[in-house]
């Protein structure tokens, strides 16, 4: 009975890790945009200033990848890192391709910031996994 529960949990984690990452990314983007937009508006800038959009996109990429990796099963963290990073980078590349044809340069830089957030989170998690898996010498 115990193995079937753990198998069900693993299946649910594999099904939900990308949608969970997407939901966290959307929520973090909205929250950061509101916080930065409000503080920018109080200081006299527009709420949708490019720096706010770039920071929100980078934090969204970071948060979505970290959430997807966290939701995935513990045994296969390396596979979940590869799948989530590939998925979110492909979203960024698709966004760049769509925006390039319309010459929306600010949105292209926003997509690049999203991918930078994804890459930073992958490097951070991978370094953490490597340091915990390496045997302690001396």
Quantity of strands, as a count: 0
Shape: elongated
Beta-strand residue percentage: under 5%
Give a short account of the largest sheet. none
On the 0 to 100 scale, the average pLDDT is: 86
Q: Enumerate how many helices there are, as a single number.
A: 4
Description:
- The chain is mainly α and 138 residues long.
- The chain has helices at 2-42, 50-71, 77-101, 105-133.
- The protein has 4 helices and no strands.
- α1 (2-42) packs antiparallel against α2 (50-71) and α2 runs parallel beside α4 (105-133).
- The mean pLDDT is 86.
Q: How would the blueprint of this fold be written?
A:
Blueprint: H1 2-42, H2 50-71, H3 77-101, H4 105-133
What keyword list fits this structure?
138 residues, 4 helices, 0% strand
Provide a short characterization of the protein structure.
This protein has 138 residues and is an all-alpha fold.
């Amino acid at each position: 009975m115990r193995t079937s529960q753990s198998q069900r949990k693993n299946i649910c984690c594999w099904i939900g890790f990308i949608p969970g990452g997407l939901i966290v990314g959307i929520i973090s983007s909205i929250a950061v945009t509101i916080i930065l937009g409000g503080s920018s508006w109080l200081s006299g800038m527009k709420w949708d200033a490019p720096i706010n959009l770039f920071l929100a996109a980078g934090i969204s990429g970071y948060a979505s990848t970290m959430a997807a990796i966290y939701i995935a099963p513990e045994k296969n963290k390396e596979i979940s890192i590869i799948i989530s990073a590939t998925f979110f980078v492909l979203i960024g590349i698709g966004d760049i391709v769509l925006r390039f044809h319309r010459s929306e340069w600010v949105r292209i830089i926003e997509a690049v910031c999203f991918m930078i957030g994804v890459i930073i989170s992958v490097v951070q998690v991978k370094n953490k996994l490597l340091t915990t898996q390496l045997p302690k010498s001396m």
